[in-house]
Write a sequence for this structure.
């Protein structure tokens, strides 16, 4: 049996790189070179059990470029458009040539709070229910802390501090554990049972100050007013979590940092002893 690997299908946040119509050096380099300099919207895939987490607008491109051929289930972390707007990808399940007699069906796992928001936000519930009536998805609403068992691992949604926002605990049959928190870890303090995981993938948080010069980039107090993590908060969270390895994702184009600059920042962070790196598209991590 092949080992389980987590693939970061998309390492961007709400603003991918390159950004449309943007001629800046970071976007120009990304346009010319592609991954790891370019970044698609936030999504993750767990190879082995074949689990998808979130569907940004570019999910069709992400799945095809990573040559993914099977999805045994899709989990959603929250309702934000950059995490759900590509849900139409499940139309790939239609059996067009066979008269729809042999449609594939993808289970859609919704933590309790996510299901609540999907019923209220952006017509998400209606679009998924339509696909369910057409026989290409099956909506499965989960109870709080309910675990879903797959062949090589089990997945448990983790309710974060922000309302109806979730991370996911991945526990493999050979005893390793990982946490994937696609977004919205603001004010989350990890309970003791989640500490010391083998791998943690979290949002990076925004840089209020330039990470190299210390120059202020955003008005003081802005991120707290809008409930967004800053990078310093993320570092504190990593220290609390104590993961053996941490990868920071959800990297926004307005930060104006290239893949090369993120690698330089990794070296600057090395003395903290956190074993932290920055994500890039199509990165695969064994768990």
């Amino acid at each position: 049996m092949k080992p389980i690997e987590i693939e970061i299908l998309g390492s961007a946040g709400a603003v991918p790189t390159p950004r449309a119509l943007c001629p800046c050096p970071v976007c120009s380099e990304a346009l010319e070179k592609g991954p790891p300099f370019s970044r698609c919207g936030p999504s993750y895939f767990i190879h082995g059990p074949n689990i998808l987490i979130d569907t940004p607008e570019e999910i069709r491109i992400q799945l095809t470029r990573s040559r993914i051929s099977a999805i045994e289930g899709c989990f959603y972390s929250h309702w934000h458009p950059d995490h759900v707007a590509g849900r139409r990808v499940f139309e790939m399940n239609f059996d067009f040539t066979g008269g729809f007699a042999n449609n594939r069906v993808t289970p859609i796992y919704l933590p309790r709070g996510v299901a609540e928001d999907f019923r209220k936000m952006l017509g998400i519930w209606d679009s998924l229910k339509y696909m369910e009536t057409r026989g290409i998805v099956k909506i499965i609403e989960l109870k709080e802390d309910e675990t879903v068992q797959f062949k090589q691992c089990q997945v448990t949604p983790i309710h974060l501090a922000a309302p109806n926002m979730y991370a996911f605990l991945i526990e493999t049959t050979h005893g390793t554990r990982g946490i994937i928190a696609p977004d919205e870890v603001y004010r989350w303090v990890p309970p003791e049972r989640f500490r010391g995981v083998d791998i943690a993938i979290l949002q990076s948080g925004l840089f209020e100050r330039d990470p190299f010069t210390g120059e202020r980039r955003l008005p003081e107090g802005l991120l707290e007013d809008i409930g967004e993590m800053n990078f310093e908060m993320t570092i504190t969270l990593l220290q609390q979590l104590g993961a053996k390895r941490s990868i920071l994702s959800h990297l926004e184009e307005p930060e104006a940092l290239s893949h090369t600059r993120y690698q330089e920042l990794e070296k600057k962070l090395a003395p903290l002893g956190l074993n932290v790196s920055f994500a890039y598209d199509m990165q695969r991590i064994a768990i």
